Amino acid sequence: MKKLTTLFAATALATLMAGSAWSKTFVYCSEGSPEGFDPGLYTAGTTFDASAHTVYNRLLEFKKGTTETEPGLAESWTISDDGLEYTFKLRPGVKFQTTEFFTPTRELNADDVIFSLERQWKPDHPWHGYVTGGSWEYFAGMGLPDVLESIEKVDDMTVKIKLKRKEAPFLANLAMPFASIMSKEYADKLQADGKMNQLNQMPLGTGPFAFVGYQQDAVIRYKANPDYWGGKQKIDDLVFSITTDAAVRYQKLQAGECHLMPYPNAADVEAMKADPNLKVMEQAGLNVAYLAYNTTQPPFDKLEVRKALNKAINKQAIVDAVFQGQATTASNPIPPTMWSYDDTIADDTYEPEVAKKMLEDAGVKDLSMKIWAMPVARPYMLNARRTAELMQADFAKIGVKVEIVSYEWAEYLEKSKAKDRDGAVILGWTGDNGDPDNFLDTLLGCDAVGGNNRAQWCNKEFDDLVTKAKEATDVAERTKLYQQAQAVFKREAPWATLDHSLSIVPMRKNVEGFVQSPLGDFAFDGVDIVE
């Protein structure tokens, strides 16, 4: 195995490799630091890759490379005739990871499932507010507090979940990162020791890799879980080398200092494809990038203003400059590859002179605004700073002055949720379960205001449509409702929809077993390095 010389100059990695000369170490040059390691508390893919897709499992999992669900920690389940009761039979013999900081004394059982879900649901649960300022944003954004009736332990290996109403995407939701199953025994020990915050700092689950340590903004270390119910992994050690600059990630990949990287610069992709030491995977991304106005704050509370700004944005220029042909302009809040996408909806046309007049007609003069530019690359937005600069120039043409602001990634995500936030935020989304609900309700529903709904937009007509679609079981009926919701969205313009991008993953030629996910996650179970 080639020595990863530059990377191992770091003290943390030198320590890792000491005494492990014959082990297989896979290094992933990740694009950012996780906000924490409890996937229930967050919504960002960077955090999920470092927690949910390494340390944890869920009752259901997504089949590799698809949005189809399959058994995970639940080996089977049944659904009542009225669609309101789901009974899950847990997989026997599943062990929690043994680490330097905790040794479990029992295997997975129903108590762990109930703990993992009820802590997010019940305000009086002792773990509901264990992280200061933390919130169960995804759980709430999916509307689950209003859907759940009860979670019951039938026996040690059986859990029954009752719903108040039918919820078509419910099983897919349980395969999402926020529904990861924690060890109640570990949580109880932390609570007894007065160390509850450690659950978010030192994770412990049933997944393929066990957490070893984290050096802030530098490196995360994992080891293969020898007791993993899916079998021990072919690689012995997994390292996340946190490298925020895409050009530096590429240099490390070329030098053999990492095996795989996410989110390359568009300008580097052709060279990557031509490099005999690399291989590149690509597929249409299940994603959207957008500019979210705060629709509760003047002047963005005026529809005419939002419409005018949308007509001032040259989206094709953004796609050409930032993605260099590896994306398409976006019309709708869901991607064209997703079922129920309405291709009859006309996009905003680029007409700066018309936009300028619309602002004048709305009585808006000398408008100054902020555009928030996310500090990290994501598949849907490779360079938010450049995108913001292009929009800044576009808006200047209609007399609007723009200040570009940014923050560290975790701070950016948190601050942008504020209901009184100023300006407009560049963000995006890669679907987490393959269902339109995961875009339309999660990002734009009334329950998500103050969370994932960065536009702070609560429209009753839209919300009623997506709620009805969740309760419907017929795909044709759901499709019709979602298409009506897309029309309302386009009419009301809480966002400027920007692009849908290709998902591109370069890696060393000797990497085998990595499966590109349509959900945009990076998981390394099943991966091997062949010399």
From TrEMBL:
Family annotation (InterPro entries): Peptide/Ni-bd, SBP_5, SBP_5_dom
Coiled-coil blocks: none
An annotated GO BP: dipeptide transport
Record keywords: Signal
Location(s), subcellular: Periplasm
A Gene Ontology term for the protein's cellular component: ATP-binding cassette (ABC) transporter complex
Presence of keyword Signal: yes
Cleaved signal peptide residues: 1-23
Matching Pfam families: SBP_bac_5
Main localisation: periplasm
Family affiliation: Belongs to the bacterial solute-binding protein 5 family.
Protein name per the record: ABC transporter substrate-binding protein
